[in-house]
Write a structure and sequence with these properties.
Blueprint: E1 3-7, H1 12-23, E2 27-32, H2 37-40, E3 45-48, H3 54-64, E4 71-74, H4 92-120, E5 127-132, H5 148-168, E6 173-179, H6 200-213, E7 221-224
Parallel strand pairs: 1-2, 1-4, 2-3, 4-5, 5-6, 6-7
Helix pairs in contact: 1-6, 3-4, 4-5
Length: 232
């Protein structure tokens, strides 16, 4: 049975991904900063991990041991309010908080679990790293400005993922960068009034279909949930 680690599994897209992988007969290790009702309802292993805290990551790695990891999905993310993330208001504290979860966290968690991922990877069955980015992290696609901390945290994540894909391709590890579109989650209350927004299970289901199709020759690319590639 393949093993998958999913962060942000107590809510939204992370929880939906965990449910999908359980149905797909993965041995799922669900991770979140809060072990709340939704994550505890999952029929899998659960770990309380703050991806923005290196010590929390180290403890998780120690508890996990050397189990091979076939899929690592870095889904956990945070966003700042519009009022605190504008050009006239964004602060160092806001930048640190957003980058800790959205950028440093996925990098440091992947770094800690890389031996486990490499242990599962082979030329016939590459391991997969998934990263939840956002279209607002695309520099080429930026036509609205604003969201300084959130936008730059995702742009930096994209750069990190591209570098990982270059280094890990020869080690049979595929890197998949994902944009979920507008999703009705607790991350951004505005999405609940958007007619184009979808529920987390639909977003995760479409992204999983995209994710499964990505092979080594397409590693390090940025994908929309509808299956088309996005510009950096």
């Amino acid at each position: 049975m393949p093993t998958a680690v999913v962060t942000g599994a107590n809510s939204g897209i992370g929880h939906a991904f965990a449910e999908i992988l359980i149905e797909e007969h993965y041995d799922v290790i669900a991770v979140d900063i809060n072990l709340g009702e939704k994550i505890n309802a999952l029929k899998c292993q659960k770990h309380e991990v703050d991806v923005g805290d290196p010590q929390s990551i180290a403890t998780f790695k120690a508890n996990l041991g050397e189990v091979p990891i076939n899929v690592l999905l870095n889904i956990a993310g945070v966003i700042a309010s519009k009022e605190s993330d504008a050009l006239h208001s964004v602060s160092l504290d806001v930048l640190k908080r957003i980058f800790a979860t959205n950028t440093y966290g996925p990098l440091l968690l992947t770094q800690a679990l890389l031996p486990n991922v490499l242990a599962a990877a082979s030329s016939e069955h590459p391991a997969h790293l998934g990263f939840m980015s956002s279209r607002v992290g695309s520099i080429a696609d930026n036509s609205t400005g604003g969201s300084y901390a959130y936008r730059s945290s995702k742009a930096a994540l994209n750069s990190i993922c591209k570098s990982m894909s270059v280094e890990l391709k020869e080690k049979d590890v595929v890197v998949v960068v994902m944009h979920p579109g507008y999703v009705k989650t607790g991350l951004n209350a505005d999405t609940h009034s958007m007619p184009e927004a979808v529920m987390p299970d639909e977003a995760a289901g479409k992204l999983w279909k995209v994710f499964q199709k990505i092979a080594l020759n397409d590693t390090g690319k940025f994908w929309h949930r509808e299956g088309y590639e996005l510009p950096w």
